[in-house]
Amino acid sequence: MRTGAAGTDATGLYSDDSLLPDIFAGPYVAYRPELAFVVDTGERVAGYVIAVEDSRAFARWYDDNWLPGFRSAHPLDPALDAREREVIGWGLDPHAAIVPEVDDYPAHLHIDLLPESQGQGFGRRLIRRQLRELRDRGVPALYLGVSSANTAAQAFYRRLGFHELPSSRPSAPVLGIATDADV
Question: Structure pTM?
Fold first, then answer.
């Protein structure tokens, strides 16, 4: 939650603080726990990277296994406002997040670091670890979406070698990278 609002704290932004994790974290760990890597300070988890190697297969699994519980936990009708309804909509349709370039970039990931863990190389190490794991599974490349408001994250990804995909728009940046990239 502490990075869920374009890199800033999203706690209390929605009527239920489990909304964002139920879209962007929980289903990934449930589907592919072996593709979850964390920064462990010894006292708590201070960051993570999670991924799926096949975005289409993940969306089908999500529909069958995650969506029923998500619908029950996050009904659309009582949502606070249009912004919350939009976010719930993301959780109701995982297929909408699949990019047109999915044949060349079949995997996707999410990464988050607590503010106090940023700028220390953890993000680069997490990405490097995830790329290696996906490459070992035969995945050629991955993509990620990033908030247009999160310019710090966009700069971070570009420093690592991510590039804009053709489907990227200024309002919805989509970046890709080969799994054999030297980050």
Answer: 0.89
104, 31, 37, 132: CA torsion to nearest 10: -30
Please write the tens of the pLDDT for every residue from 162-177.
Answer: 999 999 999 999 999 9
| CA–CA separation, 179 and 141 (whole Å) | 5
Residue type, 44: R
Model pLDDT for residues 120-162, shown as the tens digit of each residue: 999 999 999 999 999 999 999 999 999 898 898 999 999 999 9
Per DSSP, helices labelled H in 62-150 are 67-73, 82-92, 122-136
The whole-angstrom separation of Cα 176 and Cα 164 is 6
Backbone angles phi, psi at 40, to 5 degrees: -110, 115
